[in-house]
Write a structure and sequence with these properties.
By secondary structure, this protein is of the alpha/beta class. The protein has 2 domains: 230 residues, Rossmann fold (3-Layer(aba) Sandwich), CATH 3.40.50.12710; 117 residues, no CATH class. The protein is built from 15 helices and 19 strands. It starts with a helix and ends with a strand.
Length: 404
């Protein structure tokens, strides 16, 4: 993986965008973290809400049934999960809802062969359809689920300094020599501060936002895998001679037009996720054309603090995202305001995870589970309840989208 990214950097005049770095590290067909590793669970690097407690999946199942009723109880509809991990969430939902739905078709969008195998084992005996993108889904009313999906999509970072925007990019560390870099807006205590040390194989550098970037040719494009962009990519990109470098229109951050109306400070960081916006727009198109809804749950913010949120997790501990490349998770907080602003034709609202879970009955379900449980079981159930509603309750947001 290191050799591959070094070559990619060399082909790109000495640096690559953070999004290209993440795309290679996470989704390269051979070396990518999600493509070949088994990241989830106690033996992996991180754990998600469905693995914490059955309560999470059961409450989402209540939301699914509620939404189905709001849709007019269609005789045929699709239930789709993006990035289903180990398959635990959809398994719990099927367990709760099976007797209520006669003609639901269940679809999982998953590009990782390793995770697909785990899902197929978990869901053995159930009628499940797997897809590598959402374009192959049937055209009928659809309910989409995405739990901790958008946080793992590649982002770009831009820093405001001296009245100008600069892009944070990834470059090589050469013989332990640190290049001179501007203030990237990433603090020493943050996971992405390798320029303060010579121990990492990569560094964060900063360049003026020229818009000149090179796409990673070998890592699967998240946008093409998940939404099949087709010819639109060609319309947006023009080739420069024979260098393989592609020049895009000058890229002002999506959120920059919003934040420039506020008082900016030197070192303010804006993170944008074009792939996430594109995927959401395709979900909106499906929902608008066929009627349906989407529930997106992830850690993120509505009001940005203008700092780097990039982080890496290895064996349930935070790490530098430029270390253990290809062997650790890399994520960033989801900019929910940018997602909201991208929607044009459907309704949406944002709740905290705590508000969402309470709204659909987690307190009552917890009490029911504890009623006939042993003292040990009661303690476990209550601890899981607190973890979902308190520990994760406000950092995680629930974005509800619908066109009924």
């Amino acid at each position: 993986m290191l050799t591959y990214i070094h070559k990619l950097i060399d082909k790109n005049q000495g640096s690559i965008s953070i999004s290209d770095f993440m795309n290679a590290a996470l989704y390269h067909k051979e070396y990518g973290y999600y493509m070949s590793k088994l990241p989830l669970g106690k033996d992996g690097d991180f754990i998600t809400a469905p693995e914490i407690s059955q309560l999470f999946g059961e409450i989402i199942a209540v939301w699914v049934m509620h939404t189905w009723e709001k849709l007019g109880k269609p005789s045929k509809f699709s239930l789709v999960e993006l990035g289903p991990g180990k398959g635990t969430l959809i398994h719990d939902i099927i367990r709760v809802t099976r007797k209520y739905f006669d003609s639901v078709s269940i679809h999982l969008v998953e590009i990782s062969p390793a995770l697909q195998e785990i899902q197929k084992e978990k869901l053995k005996g159930l009628d499940i359809n797997w897809h590598e993108n959402i374009d192959s889904l049937p055209e009928q009313p659809t309910i989409f689920l995405a739990n901790e999906f958008f946080d793992a999509l590649p982002i770009d970072q831009f820093v405001y300094r001296n009245g100008e925007w600069y892009e944070n990019r990834v470059t090589k560390q050469v013989n332990g020599v640190l290049p001179e870099v501007a203030d990237t807006g990433i603090q020493e205590k943050d996971p992405g501060a390798p320029f303060l040390s010579s121990q990492y194989p990569f560094l964060i550098t900063q360049v003026a936002d020229t818009g000149v970037q090179k796409k990673d040719p070998s890592a699967p494009s998240l946008s093409s895998q998940c939404v099949t962009l087709g010819s639109r990519e060609k319309d947006d990109v023009t080739q420069i001679a024979d260098t393989g470098i592609q020049k895009k229109e000058l890229c002002v951050p999506v959120s920059a037009t919003q934040v420039t109306n506020r008082k900016l400070f030197d070192g303010a960081v804006v993170e944008v996720c074009p792939v996430g916006i594109e995927i959401l727009k395709r979900l909106e198109e499906k929902i608008y054309n066929n009627k349906g809804a989407a529930l997106i749950i992830d850690y993120g913010y509505v009001y940005p603090e203008y700092k780097s949120t990039l982080q890496s997790v290895k064996q349930h501990k935070y790490a530098n995202f430029l270390e253990n490349v290809g062997n650790s998770d890399i994520t960033a907080l989801v900019n929910f305001q940018a997602l909201i602003d991208s929607l044009e034709y459907v309704d949406c609202e944002i709740l905290t995870q705590r508000e969402f879970l309470y709204l659909f009955g987690i307190k009552e379900r917890t009490q029911a589970l504890m009623k006939n449980a042993s003292d040990e079981q009661k303690n476990r159930i209550f601890d899981e309840f607190l973890r979902l509603t308190e520990n994760m309750g406000t950092l995680f947001k629930a974005m509800l989208i619908h066109h009924l």
